[in-house]
Amino acid sequence: MNSTSASAVGPSGRTGPPAADLSRKARPAETVIRAVLMVSAFLSVAITIGIFIALARPVIGFFEEVPFGTFFSDDAQYGVLPLIGGTLMTTAIALLVAVPLGLGAAMYLSEYASRKARKVLKPTVELLAGIPSVVYGFFALTFVTPTLLQDILSLEVNFTNALSAGLVLGVMVIPTIASLAEDALSAVPQSMRQGSLAMGANRMQTTLRVVFPAALSGIGAAIVLGMSRAIGETMIVALAAGAQKNLSLDPREGMQTMTGFIATTAQGENPVGSTSYNTLFAVGMTLFLITLVVNIVSIVLVRRFRQVY
Amino acid sequence: MSVATTTAREVTQSLTTGRPKDRRPASLIFLALLWFSLFFGVVVLLVLLIDTAIQGAPRFDSALITEYGSRVLPETTGFRAGILGSAWLMLFTALFAVPLGIAAALYLEEFADTDRWWNRLIELNLQNLAAVPSIVYGLLAVAVMALAGFSDSGTVLGGATALALLILPVIIITTREAVRAVPREIREGSLALGATVWQTTWRQTLPSAIPGIATGTILGLSRAIGEAAPLVVVGLAGSVRFDPTGVLSSITALPMQIFSLTSQSQEDFQTAASAAIIVLLVMILGLNAAAIYIRNKFQRSW
Questions:
Q1: All residues at 6 or more sequence positions from B106 whose CB lies less than 8 Å from its CB, including other chains
Q2: What pLDDT score does B105 carry?
Q3: Are A53 and A226 in contact, with CB atoms under 8 Å apart?
Q4: What is the mean pLDDT of chain B?
Q5: Is the pLDDT of residue B237 over 50?
Q6: CA-CA distance, B161 to B179, in Å (whole number)?
């Protein structure tokens, strides 16, 4: 709708012959306002470029002092590999929790719930997204690790461990996946469900074998976006996953993530230009690039499912 | 009754009532799994709230909001500085992000030709910015402050810059939706009476979209008020013992105080942190209630 109205009323006046005369009339105030609004809109692009420039300067400074090979190694001081390992571990645990639960909730909301029930249930699921992450971090540290993992499940976990951080991270990501996956499932045309039911399939078969595959790219986008959230989340992992670099495959151990490293290091003294200051930005740039790639994959997938139906 | 008619009846029933009359075990198990995934999160949320409320209950006293943070007296440590700091942050975050966000949204909805590649670039970029990790905005704010020559870390200005950058995409996206919901006839009527595009936007479209914009803004702020990650990077203190006095005064914020107390091992600090979490959740709940009130009271249906 927007594109049509914009081209119909736009100052270029390409459509509507009589209006063309008036719209060519010089209106200085109008031009100025349009320019101001346009600058505001382009500011969002400037922010992205700003992120690159802001991160690039200290990153260049960092690589002048620390060789590239040392950064991408498990070097105790400057290595980023253990941090990437920690991020992958917590993200993987989070997705193990959030993907089945998020998709289950989405399938119920889209295929089973009546319109009235959905109106109540969807905001309830989304409540989870409104809880600040520092609160989730506190919960992971003071409830999930000591009470749930150590007392109830009697696992031998460290005080800070990737498991509890990942589990709570997963709960936080559920609404992101559920919400976007529900959109994708609801976008599947009703005629496909009717066709399936008419062939004698029951509702479960219809959901799993017809609607789910038809919405696959949207569901993929939902999962990828959830992954991006899990990678970038800071407070839960800063509090509950540990503050020690640890390249390990055992989720019961504490391991620092990229975001956790930035949060921990930023609390200390980091004068502008020092190596510790530059390290922050080098890790920040790595994090930004990883989430950028993940986000672009998600955006491409969303476009695909919007195009199909 | 033949199999065909039974099935047909089942299908029509399930289509009209939305409830399957299917009692096969596989279907029931599947439905139970769906129910489980739907309510798992809610159960976790309840456990979180109850656990925190029980832990924090001994500290629901007036000292909690009137006293400054204290390392020596954990049993009367308070969150006055954090609550005031968060309020200042919200004020300046809104001041920075709202005008900019509305201007950008109006350009994209009312002026931009969406076929042009640069406008599509803005759209793509907004989608990406909405998913950039919040801690990266903290780094950006640090770099901006360093470039602008502000040497003090942990100020209102630095924190509000980071939070404003964080919620700008949210505000732009919700404002665009609110503006898009204003019917085209309103614009066309105004244009037909000789108003320019800007006059139409300023006097017709924008006023009609205000409730939607306000709701979106408050929801954006309710996200910003709970954020700690960018504030940690900007260098906000875990605790200060004075009220904020200006944009360049060093402050703390409620989520920052919770973060720094959680890292302390003493029992009293954990109790105080639990009580502060309840305060923070009440503030967020208040913002959300305001958003819902505004939406229900002022939203017009066309």
A1: A37, B175, B179, B201, B205, B206
A2: 92
A3: no
A4: 85
A5: yes
A6: 26
- Searching chain B, which residue's CA lies closest to the CA of residue A258? B135
- Range name among A76-90, B12-26, B228-242 with the lowest pLDDT average: B12-26
The answer to whether A289 and B132 have CB atoms below 8 angstroms apart is no
- pLDDT at residue number A123: 85
Q: Is the pLDDT at B151 greater than 90, yes or no?
A: no
Reduced to 3 states (helix: H, G, I; strand: E, B; else coil), residue B130 is: coil
Q: Is B29 on the interface with A (CB under 8 A)?
A: no
Q: Which residues on neighbouring strands pair with residue B250, listed in sequence order?
A: B155
Give contacts of A170 with chain B, Cβ < 8 Å.
Answer: none
Scanning A137-156 for CB atoms below 8 A from B yields 137-139, 141-143
Q: Work out the pLDDT band at B149, boundaries 50, 70, 90.
A: confident
Interface contact A249, partner B, CB < 8 A: no
* A46–B contact, CB cutoff 8 A: no
SS3 assignment, position A270: coil
Residue in chain B closest to A197 (alpha carbons) equals B11
Interface test with A, best of B106, B233, B269 (most A CBs within 10 A): B233
As beta bridge partners, residue B155 has B250
> B239 at the A interface (CB within 8 A)?
no
- A169-225 pLDDT per residue, tens: 999 999 999 999 999 999 999 999 999 999 989 889 999 999 999 999 899 999 999
The pLDDT assigned to B277 comes to 93
User: Helix (H, G, I), strand (E, B), or coil: what is residue B155?
Assistant: strand
Residue reference for tokens 């007392």 = A151
The CA distance from B255 to B276, in Å, is 9
CB contact under 8 A, B280 and A124: no
CB within 8 Å: B262 and A239: yes
Q: How far apart are CA B186 and CA A25, in angstroms?
A: 23
Give the tens place of pLDDT for each residue, A55-86.
Answer: 888 889 898 888 888 888 888 788 899 999 99
* pLDDT, tens only, B190-204: 999 989 889 999 999
- What per-residue confidence (pLDDT) applies to A14? 47
Flag if B48 and A131 touch (Cβ within 8 Å). Answer: yes
Q: Is B131 on the interface with A (CB under 8 A)?
A: yes
How many helices (H) does chain A have, and how many strands (E)?
15, 0
The CA distances from residue A266 to B163, B182, B231, in Å, are 17, 45, 10
Per the listing, tokens 């399930």 go with B14
Chain B contact for A282 (CB, 8 A cutoff): no
- Cβ A251 vs Cβ A166: under 8 Å: yes
DSSP SS3 for A72:
coil
Interface check A198 vs B, CB under 8 A: yes
CB of B277 within 8 A of CB of B50?
A: no
Taken in order A234, A239, A242, A245, the sign of the CA dihedral is positive
Q: Which residue has the tokens 């944009």?
A: B247
| A187 at B interface, C-beta within 8 A | no
- The shortest C-alpha distance from B60 to chain A (Å) reads 18
Q: With an 8 Å Cβ cutoff, are B38 and A7 in contact? A: no
| Residues of chain B contacting residue A12, judged by C-beta atoms under 8 Å apart | 113
